[in-house]
Amino acid sequence: MSVVIKNGTVLDRRGEQRGDVRIADGVVTEVGANLSGDVELDASGCMVSPGFVDLHVHLRQPGREEAETIETGSRAAARGGFTAVVAMPNTEPPHDSLAVVQMVRRLGEQAGLCEVLPSGCITMGRLGETLAPFSELAAAGVHIFTDDGTGVQDPLLMRRALEYGKSLGIVLAQHCEVSRLTEGAVMHEGGCCSRLGVPGWPSVAEELMVFRDIELSRLTGAPVHFLHLSTAKSVDLVRGAKAEGLLVTAEAAPHHFTLTDESLSGFDPIFKVNPPLREAADIAAVKRGLADGTIDAIATDHAPHVSESKEMPLDQAPPGMLGLETSLALSISELGLDLGQVVALLSWRPAAIAGVADRHGRDIEVGAPANITVFDPDLNWRVTAAGLASKSRNTPYAGRSVRGKVRHTLLRGIPTVIDGEAQR
Fold it and tell me: Would the pTM of this model clear 0.90, i.e. be above it?
Protein backbone atom coordinates (compact mmCIF):
# COMPACT_ATOMS: atom_id res chain seq x y z
CA MET A 1 0.00 0.00 0.00
CA SER A 2 1.30 3.43 -0.94
CA VAL A 3 0.68 6.64 0.99
CA VAL A 4 0.85 10.10 -0.56
CA ILE A 5 1.11 13.30 1.46
CA LYS A 6 -0.47 15.89 -0.82
CA ASN A 7 -0.35 19.66 -1.19
CA GLY A 8 2.22 20.35 1.52
CA THR A 9 5.55 22.15 1.75
CA VAL A 10 8.51 19.87 2.42
CA LEU A 11 10.83 21.33 5.07
CA ASP A 12 14.16 19.70 5.89
CA ARG A 13 17.84 20.66 6.15
CA ARG A 14 17.87 21.72 2.49
CA GLY A 15 15.13 24.30 3.02
CA GLU A 16 11.57 24.37 1.71
CA GLN A 17 10.02 23.03 -1.48
CA ARG A 18 6.44 22.53 -2.58
CA GLY A 19 5.55 18.97 -3.49
CA ASP A 20 3.71 15.76 -2.76
CA VAL A 21 5.51 12.88 -1.05
CA ARG A 22 4.84 9.26 -2.03
CA ILE A 23 5.73 6.49 0.42
CA ALA A 24 5.79 2.71 -0.01
CA ASP A 25 7.36 -0.12 1.98
CA GLY A 26 8.40 2.28 4.72
CA VAL A 27 10.50 4.63 2.57
CA VAL A 28 10.03 7.73 0.45
CA THR A 29 9.71 6.69 -3.20
CA GLU A 30 9.01 10.03 -4.89
CA VAL A 31 8.76 13.75 -4.21
CA GLY A 32 6.99 15.70 -6.91
CA ALA A 33 3.78 17.24 -8.20
CA ASN A 34 0.37 15.66 -8.59
CA LEU A 35 1.28 12.28 -7.11
CA SER A 36 -1.34 9.68 -6.24
CA GLY A 37 -1.45 6.65 -3.97
CA ASP A 38 -3.67 4.12 -2.22
CA VAL A 39 -4.01 6.42 0.80
CA GLU A 40 -3.84 10.19 0.45
CA LEU A 41 -3.23 12.54 3.36
CA ASP A 42 -4.07 16.18 2.83
CA ALA A 43 -1.31 18.57 3.89
CA SER A 44 -2.76 21.82 2.58
CA GLY A 45 -1.25 24.75 4.47
CA CYS A 46 1.10 22.37 6.29
CA MET A 47 4.80 21.69 6.54
CA VAL A 48 6.01 18.15 5.82
CA SER A 49 9.13 17.59 7.91
CA PRO A 50 11.33 14.79 9.21
CA GLY A 51 9.81 13.26 12.33
CA PHE A 52 10.59 14.80 15.71
CA VAL A 53 12.89 13.12 18.25
CA ASP A 54 12.52 13.72 22.00
CA LEU A 55 15.68 13.11 24.02
CA HIS A 56 13.93 13.18 27.39
CA VAL A 57 10.64 11.41 28.13
CA HIS A 58 9.38 9.69 31.27
CA LEU A 59 7.11 6.80 30.26
CA ARG A 60 6.86 5.51 33.87
CA GLN A 61 6.62 1.84 32.87
CA PRO A 62 7.68 -0.35 34.62
CA GLY A 63 6.53 0.54 38.09
CA ARG A 64 4.28 3.57 37.81
CA GLU A 65 1.72 2.56 35.24
CA GLU A 66 -0.99 4.49 37.10
CA ALA A 67 0.61 7.70 35.77
CA GLU A 68 1.63 6.59 32.26
CA THR A 69 2.35 3.48 30.22
CA ILE A 70 4.60 3.06 27.24
CA GLU A 71 1.47 2.80 25.09
CA THR A 72 -0.21 5.98 26.37
CA GLY A 73 3.05 7.92 26.38
CA SER A 74 3.79 6.77 22.84
CA ARG A 75 0.34 7.90 21.77
CA ALA A 76 0.98 11.35 23.22
CA ALA A 77 4.35 11.39 21.46
CA ALA A 78 2.85 10.52 18.08
CA ARG A 79 0.19 13.21 18.47
CA GLY A 80 3.01 15.64 19.26
CA GLY A 81 4.78 14.72 16.00
CA PHE A 82 7.48 12.52 17.55
CA THR A 83 8.60 9.43 15.70
CA ALA A 84 11.21 8.52 18.33
CA VAL A 85 11.58 9.19 22.06
CA VAL A 86 14.33 8.40 24.55
CA ALA A 87 12.76 6.76 27.61
CA MET A 88 14.38 7.88 30.86
CA PRO A 89 15.64 5.14 33.21
CA ASN A 90 14.14 6.22 36.54
CA THR A 91 11.49 3.52 36.52
CA GLU A 92 10.88 0.79 39.13
CA PRO A 93 13.03 -1.22 38.52
CA PRO A 94 15.37 1.18 36.70
CA HIS A 95 17.08 0.61 33.33
CA ASP A 96 20.22 -0.92 34.80
CA SER A 97 19.74 -4.42 33.40
CA LEU A 98 19.30 -5.99 30.00
CA ALA A 99 15.93 -7.45 31.02
CA VAL A 100 14.36 -4.07 31.76
CA VAL A 101 15.79 -2.42 28.64
CA GLN A 102 14.51 -5.24 26.44
CA MET A 103 11.07 -5.08 28.04
CA VAL A 104 10.78 -1.31 27.44
CA ARG A 105 11.84 -1.70 23.82
CA ARG A 106 9.43 -4.61 23.28
CA LEU A 107 6.47 -2.69 24.72
CA GLY A 108 7.34 0.23 22.47
CA GLU A 109 7.34 -2.05 19.43
CA GLN A 110 3.99 -3.51 20.44
CA ALA A 111 2.46 -0.05 20.77
CA GLY A 112 3.73 0.80 17.27
CA LEU A 113 3.19 4.54 17.65
CA CYS A 114 6.78 5.77 17.81
CA GLU A 115 10.21 4.22 18.24
CA VAL A 116 10.95 3.93 21.97
CA LEU A 117 14.68 4.17 22.68
CA PRO A 118 15.47 2.99 26.22
CA SER A 119 18.24 4.90 27.94
CA GLY A 120 20.50 3.12 30.39
CA CYS A 121 21.47 4.06 33.94
CA ILE A 122 24.95 5.41 34.58
CA THR A 123 25.01 3.73 37.99
CA MET A 124 23.27 0.68 39.40
CA GLY A 125 19.91 1.64 40.83
CA ARG A 126 20.79 5.28 40.05
CA LEU A 127 22.44 5.29 43.48
CA GLY A 128 25.70 6.88 42.34
CA GLU A 129 27.89 4.13 43.75
CA THR A 130 28.68 1.49 41.08
CA LEU A 131 28.66 1.78 37.30
CA ALA A 132 25.91 0.01 35.39
CA PRO A 133 26.88 -2.65 32.81
CA PHE A 134 27.60 -0.21 29.97
CA SER A 135 29.06 -2.80 27.60
CA GLU A 136 26.13 -5.20 27.85
CA LEU A 137 23.53 -2.46 27.44
CA ALA A 138 25.42 -0.77 24.60
CA ALA A 139 25.62 -4.11 22.78
CA ALA A 140 21.83 -4.25 23.07
CA GLY A 141 21.51 -0.88 21.31
CA VAL A 142 21.43 1.57 24.22
CA HIS A 143 23.15 4.81 23.19
CA ILE A 144 22.32 7.32 25.95
CA PHE A 145 23.11 6.66 29.61
CA THR A 146 21.87 8.85 32.44
CA ASP A 147 20.79 8.79 36.08
CA ASP A 148 18.20 11.46 35.27
CA GLY A 149 16.41 12.71 38.36
CA THR A 150 19.70 12.36 40.22
CA GLY A 151 23.02 13.82 39.17
CA VAL A 152 26.13 11.69 39.55
CA GLN A 153 27.62 13.35 42.62
CA ASP A 154 31.02 11.60 42.77
CA PRO A 155 33.43 13.31 40.32
CA LEU A 156 35.78 10.31 40.23
CA LEU A 157 32.94 7.95 39.37
CA MET A 158 31.77 10.34 36.66
CA ARG A 159 35.28 10.49 35.25
CA ARG A 160 35.42 6.69 35.08
CA ALA A 161 31.98 6.62 33.47
CA LEU A 162 33.07 9.07 30.78
CA GLU A 163 36.24 7.10 30.06
CA TYR A 164 34.30 3.85 29.85
CA GLY A 165 31.60 5.44 27.72
CA LYS A 166 34.12 6.92 25.31
CA SER A 167 35.55 3.46 24.62
CA LEU A 168 32.07 2.20 23.74
CA GLY A 169 30.94 5.16 21.62
CA ILE A 170 28.00 5.98 23.88
CA VAL A 171 26.81 9.33 25.29
CA LEU A 172 26.47 10.16 28.98
CA ALA A 173 23.68 12.61 29.78
CA GLN A 174 23.93 14.46 33.06
CA HIS A 175 21.17 15.72 35.35
CA CYS A 176 23.03 18.75 36.71
CA GLU A 177 22.27 19.12 40.38
CA VAL A 178 24.63 19.21 43.34
CA SER A 179 22.25 17.56 45.76
CA ARG A 180 23.67 19.01 48.98
CA LEU A 181 22.68 22.47 47.74
CA THR A 182 19.08 21.50 46.97
CA GLU A 183 18.07 19.52 50.05
CA GLY A 184 14.50 20.42 50.93
CA ALA A 185 14.19 22.80 47.99
CA VAL A 186 10.76 23.49 46.57
CA MET A 187 11.39 26.06 43.83
CA HIS A 188 14.01 28.43 42.41
CA GLU A 189 15.90 30.44 44.99
CA GLY A 190 15.02 34.04 44.22
CA GLY A 191 12.63 36.85 44.98
CA CYS A 192 9.46 34.78 44.58
CA CYS A 193 10.84 32.05 46.82
CA SER A 194 11.61 34.63 49.53
CA ARG A 195 8.11 36.11 49.38
CA LEU A 196 6.51 32.69 49.67
CA GLY A 197 8.80 31.64 52.52
CA VAL A 198 9.74 28.25 51.05
CA PRO A 199 13.19 26.65 50.64
CA GLY A 200 14.95 27.55 47.39
CA TRP A 201 16.91 25.66 44.72
CA PRO A 202 19.90 27.90 43.89
CA SER A 203 21.09 28.27 40.31
CA VAL A 204 24.63 27.46 41.37
CA ALA A 205 23.56 23.88 42.20
CA GLU A 206 23.11 23.34 38.47
CA GLU A 207 25.99 25.46 37.32
CA LEU A 208 28.64 23.77 39.48
CA MET A 209 27.89 20.41 37.92
CA VAL A 210 27.80 21.85 34.39
CA PHE A 211 31.24 23.35 35.04
CA ARG A 212 32.56 20.11 36.57
CA ASP A 213 31.45 17.91 33.72
CA ILE A 214 32.71 20.29 31.06
CA GLU A 215 36.11 19.96 32.71
CA LEU A 216 35.76 16.17 32.91
CA SER A 217 34.87 16.10 29.23
CA ARG A 218 37.99 18.16 28.52
CA LEU A 219 40.08 15.76 30.62
CA THR A 220 38.73 12.53 29.13
CA GLY A 221 37.91 13.61 25.58
CA ALA A 222 34.48 12.01 26.05
CA PRO A 223 31.18 13.54 24.96
CA VAL A 224 28.71 14.72 27.59
CA HIS A 225 25.12 15.83 27.11
CA PHE A 226 23.49 18.23 29.57
CA LEU A 227 19.86 17.61 30.34
CA HIS A 228 17.26 20.40 30.74
CA LEU A 229 19.50 23.46 31.11
CA SER A 230 17.66 26.15 33.04
CA THR A 231 20.01 29.00 34.05
CA ALA A 232 21.77 31.79 32.19
CA LYS A 233 25.17 30.81 33.61
CA SER A 234 24.71 27.19 32.51
CA VAL A 235 24.01 28.36 28.97
CA ASP A 236 27.11 30.57 29.03
CA LEU A 237 29.26 27.68 30.27
CA VAL A 238 28.10 25.43 27.44
CA ARG A 239 28.59 28.23 24.91
CA GLY A 240 32.19 28.62 26.05
CA ALA A 241 32.84 24.87 25.97
CA LYS A 242 31.55 24.64 22.41
CA ALA A 243 33.71 27.58 21.36
CA GLU A 244 36.69 25.55 22.58
CA GLY A 245 35.61 22.57 20.49
CA LEU A 246 34.73 20.32 23.43
CA LEU A 247 32.32 17.44 22.84
CA VAL A 248 29.43 19.02 24.70
CA THR A 249 25.73 19.08 23.77
CA ALA A 250 22.69 20.35 25.63
CA GLU A 251 18.92 20.42 25.63
CA ALA A 252 16.24 22.72 27.03
CA ALA A 253 12.64 21.95 27.95
CA PRO A 254 9.73 24.11 26.74
CA HIS A 255 8.76 25.04 30.30
CA HIS A 256 12.19 26.59 30.78
CA PHE A 257 11.59 29.04 27.95
CA THR A 258 7.88 29.71 28.58
CA LEU A 259 7.31 29.85 32.36
CA THR A 260 9.00 31.67 35.24
CA ASP A 261 9.19 31.01 38.97
CA GLU A 262 6.42 33.57 39.44
CA SER A 263 4.04 30.87 38.20
CA LEU A 264 4.39 29.33 41.66
CA SER A 265 3.22 32.46 43.47
CA GLY A 266 -0.14 30.76 44.05
CA PHE A 267 1.51 27.63 45.55
CA ASP A 268 0.14 25.47 42.70
CA PRO A 269 2.22 22.24 42.42
CA ILE A 270 1.33 21.94 38.72
CA PHE A 271 4.25 24.35 38.18
CA LYS A 272 6.73 22.40 40.31
CA VAL A 273 9.49 20.83 38.24
CA ASN A 274 13.15 19.78 38.53
CA PRO A 275 15.19 21.81 37.73
CA PRO A 276 12.75 24.49 38.83
CA LEU A 277 11.24 27.29 36.79
CA ARG A 278 13.72 30.17 36.85
CA GLU A 279 13.62 33.96 36.52
CA ALA A 280 12.93 36.04 33.40
CA ALA A 281 16.65 36.58 32.71
CA ASP A 282 17.19 32.82 32.64
CA ILE A 283 14.27 32.36 30.24
CA ALA A 284 15.80 34.94 27.92
CA ALA A 285 19.19 33.21 28.11
CA VAL A 286 17.70 29.82 27.24
CA LYS A 287 15.96 31.38 24.25
CA ARG A 288 19.24 32.92 23.08
CA GLY A 289 20.96 29.58 23.50
CA LEU A 290 18.38 27.86 21.33
CA ALA A 291 18.62 30.61 18.71
CA ASP A 292 22.43 30.62 18.39
CA GLY A 293 22.98 26.85 18.55
CA THR A 294 24.45 26.70 22.05
CA ILE A 295 21.52 24.48 23.02
CA ASP A 296 21.20 21.67 20.50
CA ALA A 297 17.70 20.38 21.09
CA ILE A 298 14.29 20.98 22.56
CA ALA A 299 13.43 18.03 24.81
CA THR A 300 10.15 17.90 26.69
CA ASP A 301 11.09 16.20 29.98
CA HIS A 302 7.53 14.83 29.75
CA ALA A 303 6.83 13.77 33.36
CA PRO A 304 3.31 12.50 34.04
CA HIS A 305 1.91 12.24 37.58
CA VAL A 306 -1.46 11.09 38.85
CA SER A 307 -3.78 13.87 39.98
CA GLU A 308 -3.67 12.90 43.66
CA SER A 309 0.08 13.46 43.86
CA LYS A 310 -0.06 16.85 42.17
CA GLU A 311 -2.84 17.91 44.55
CA MET A 312 -0.56 17.49 47.56
CA PRO A 313 0.98 20.53 49.31
CA LEU A 314 3.73 22.22 47.32
CA ASP A 315 6.56 20.87 49.45
CA GLN A 316 5.25 17.29 49.18
CA ALA A 317 4.10 17.14 45.56
CA PRO A 318 6.47 15.51 43.04
CA PRO A 319 8.15 17.66 40.38
CA GLY A 320 7.25 17.27 36.73
CA MET A 321 4.79 18.23 34.00
CA LEU A 322 3.48 16.97 30.67
CA GLY A 323 5.15 18.17 27.48
CA LEU A 324 4.83 15.91 24.43
CA GLU A 325 1.73 17.38 22.80
CA THR A 326 2.50 21.04 23.46
CA SER A 327 6.20 21.17 22.57
CA LEU A 328 5.82 22.14 18.91
CA ALA A 329 3.19 24.80 19.57
CA LEU A 330 5.13 26.40 22.42
CA SER A 331 8.30 26.42 20.31
CA ILE A 332 6.54 28.13 17.41
CA SER A 333 4.58 30.52 19.63
CA GLU A 334 7.31 31.59 22.05
CA LEU A 335 10.79 31.34 20.53
CA GLY A 336 10.56 33.78 17.63
CA LEU A 337 12.57 31.44 15.39
CA ASP A 338 11.85 30.55 11.79
CA LEU A 339 10.27 27.16 11.17
CA GLY A 340 13.51 25.65 9.89
CA GLN A 341 15.23 26.44 13.19
CA VAL A 342 12.36 25.02 15.22
CA VAL A 343 12.29 21.77 13.26
CA ALA A 344 16.07 21.44 13.53
CA LEU A 345 15.78 21.65 17.33
CA LEU A 346 12.99 19.07 17.36
CA SER A 347 14.19 16.69 14.66
CA TRP A 348 17.60 16.16 13.10
CA ARG A 349 19.73 17.70 15.84
CA PRO A 350 18.31 15.54 18.66
CA ALA A 351 18.32 12.55 16.28
CA ALA A 352 22.09 12.90 15.95
CA ILE A 353 22.57 13.02 19.73
CA ALA A 354 20.32 9.97 20.20
CA GLY A 355 22.31 8.00 17.63
CA VAL A 356 19.33 7.45 15.31
CA ALA A 357 20.17 9.88 12.50
CA ASP A 358 20.22 6.94 10.09
CA ARG A 359 16.42 6.65 10.36
CA HIS A 360 15.03 9.78 12.07
CA GLY A 361 15.54 13.41 11.10
CA ARG A 362 16.52 12.39 7.56
CA ASP A 363 15.89 14.70 4.63
CA ILE A 364 12.69 13.80 2.81
CA GLU A 365 14.13 12.31 -0.35
CA VAL A 366 13.90 9.09 -2.33
CA GLY A 367 15.10 6.13 -0.27
CA ALA A 368 14.85 7.87 3.12
CA PRO A 369 12.94 6.12 5.92
CA ALA A 370 9.44 7.55 6.04
CA ASN A 371 9.43 8.86 9.62
CA ILE A 372 7.57 12.08 8.92
CA THR A 373 5.62 14.80 10.71
CA VAL A 374 3.04 17.01 9.02
CA PHE A 375 2.08 20.13 10.96
CA ASP A 376 0.08 23.29 10.45
CA PRO A 377 2.27 26.16 11.71
CA ASP A 378 -0.57 28.67 11.75
CA LEU A 379 -3.34 26.76 13.47
CA ASN A 380 -4.38 28.42 16.73
CA TRP A 381 -5.72 26.19 19.49
CA ARG A 382 -6.31 26.16 23.22
CA VAL A 383 -4.67 23.56 25.44
CA THR A 384 -7.02 21.47 27.59
CA ALA A 385 -5.86 18.75 29.97
CA ALA A 386 -8.71 16.45 28.96
CA GLY A 387 -7.76 16.80 25.30
CA LEU A 388 -4.29 15.30 25.79
CA ALA A 389 -3.49 11.63 25.17
CA SER A 390 -1.38 11.09 28.28
CA LYS A 391 -2.82 8.99 31.07
CA SER A 392 -2.10 11.93 33.42
CA ARG A 393 -3.38 15.50 33.29
CA ASN A 394 -0.60 17.58 34.86
CA THR A 395 -0.11 20.17 32.14
CA PRO A 396 0.74 23.71 33.26
CA TYR A 397 -0.62 25.08 29.98
CA ALA A 398 -4.32 24.30 30.39
CA GLY A 399 -6.31 27.21 28.99
CA ARG A 400 -3.32 28.68 27.14
CA SER A 401 -3.76 29.67 23.49
CA VAL A 402 -0.91 28.53 21.24
CA ARG A 403 -0.08 28.33 17.55
CA GLY A 404 1.02 25.30 15.54
CA LYS A 405 -0.37 21.77 15.65
CA VAL A 406 0.53 18.35 14.29
CA ARG A 407 -1.88 17.06 11.68
CA HIS A 408 -0.35 13.73 10.60
CA THR A 409 2.52 11.56 11.85
CA LEU A 410 4.00 8.58 9.99
CA LEU A 411 6.25 5.92 11.49
CA ARG A 412 8.09 3.78 8.92
CA GLY A 413 5.54 4.91 6.36
CA ILE A 414 2.50 3.93 8.43
CA PRO A 415 0.20 6.77 9.55
CA THR A 416 0.07 6.76 13.35
CA VAL A 417 -1.82 10.06 13.49
CA ILE A 418 -4.27 11.29 10.87
CA ASP A 419 -5.92 14.70 11.22
CA GLY A 420 -4.73 14.90 14.82
CA GLU A 421 -6.19 11.55 15.87
CA ALA A 422 -4.02 8.59 16.88
CA GLN A 423 -4.78 5.54 14.75
CA ARG A 424 -4.28 2.97 17.51
Answer: yes
